[in-house]
Design brief:
Structural class: mainly alpha
Helix content: 40-55%
Number of helices: 5
Radius of gyration: 20 Å
Strand order of the largest sheet: 1-2
Number of strands: 2
Length: 124
């Protein structure tokens, strides 16, 4: 259970890295003229595109790769593995995250559309 708890704590930490609630860290750039005032708001926080993507992919991978350890835990604790499968199939977001994590890990889409049947991808 400690392994699962540690994984879940890392998921919360990774998802937490994707959220910044202190908007003062993102001051707008203001340009004024005698006819107008314009401002530009940048929420990158000084991060490069690669850094932003790494933060997002860490969260996707941690969620997407939790299923097999949960199944191992269930099996070793005499719990039905079908409960894990049921939780995944009962949540539309989980199969998509699992498919995204697998696509990133294996370098391409699943031949059969993956668990979600949608072959999801992230393009930016």
């Amino acid at each position: 259970m400690d392994e699962i708890r540690g994984r879940i704590e890392r998921i919360y930490a990774a998802v937490g890295e994707t959220v910044e609630e202190e908007l003062a860290k993102f001051p707008p750039t203001v340009a004024e003229s005698d006819r107008m005032v314009c401002w530009h708001q940048n929420f990158r926080g000084g991060l490069s595109q690669a850094q932003i993507e790494n933060i997002a992919w860490a969260a996707v991978a941690l969620v997407g790769n939790l299923i097999d350890p949960l199944k191992r835990w269930a099996k070793s604790n005499s719990k039905p593995i079908s409960d894990v499968d049921g939780a995944v199939s009962g949540c539309p977001a989980l199969p998509l995250l699992i498919d995204l994590a697998n696509r990133e890990k294996h370098g391409g889409p699943s031949r059969d559309g993956g668990l979600s049947g949608r072959s999801p991808s992230v393009e930016g």
